[in-house]
Known about the structure:
By secondary structure, the protein is α+β, with helices and mostly antiparallel strands. The protein has helices at 3-6, 17-21, 47-59, 81-88, 106-109, 113-116, 179-190, 211-218, 244-247, and strands at residues 30-31, 37-42, 65-73, 97-103, 130-136, 142-151, 155-164, 169-174, 195-205, 227-233, 255-264, 268-277, 282-287. The chain has a seven-stranded antiparallel beta sheet, with helices on both faces. The protein is elongated and about 60 Å long.
Amino acid sequence: MSLVARDIARRVGVVVVALIVGLVASYAPSRAAEGDARTTVTDQPGAPGTMLRQFEDLTGRGVGDLNTVLAVDTGGRNVTVDEFAALVAGEKVDGVTVLGTMPGGRDILGTTMADLADGGYDGRSGSGGTLLFASSVPGGREWCLTMCVASGKSVWECLLSRRTGDLLRTLDLSGDTTLGATKTAFEKVNGVAVEGPYAVDTLIGDGEPSADELQALLDDKDVDSLRRVATVPGPDPGWALTDVAEKSGVTYRKTKIHIFTFGLPFLGKILVVCVSHNDGKTWKCSSRPWSGF
């Protein structure tokens, strides 16, 4: 698992799927250990929305906007909260299969858990599996990860984990990936189309930015260890990542970072930060989730 994935949330210990399965079946929401919350929901149309509202009533706090829903098969192995968060961020976790990734939205809140269980969201019921609901609070650094497991034919048991810190989507791309293909890749994992790129900024430094520095860059803030050396408005979508620096007039050969600015209706500016590795042969690109609403 990458450093970014490990730093997605504070370490809070291991929460395994077996814990969720072993929850006492009760239709009244109840408080779980470690400050998290648990509840059960009867599967029927609107069950996902009912589940999230139960958590809001239980905790007295909003769970934010639903960004992504994942259906996964854990293969019977124990999975930590950090590993679940890494799956939501688009990373691979050994022994866990992602059956499907579905963008969050009002429509998805009105369906059934069984409809989502096979990762298809196509009106046909899946069986078993684990559902991950990732939501974030707009304008803040708080996010919620809810894990739900089927228990019996119609009951799903769910555990909500509220975290401070930013949930990121991180993709590993080759240097010959074009800006247009980079945009498409992030649109695919977020399920939302964006406009642009409007601009690309190139920064240089002597080493890879830390997790905190990456968060600062995504907040559109300056980082002391990095120097902004070029800004190009309206870069060509056909440019390859490895060629952006040269086409921007930058010949510095150490660590290069590109920040791409895209636009999303209603939400405004969206940033994607790409960090060079292996002299530009590979790039690690990160963004915050784009709302499915």
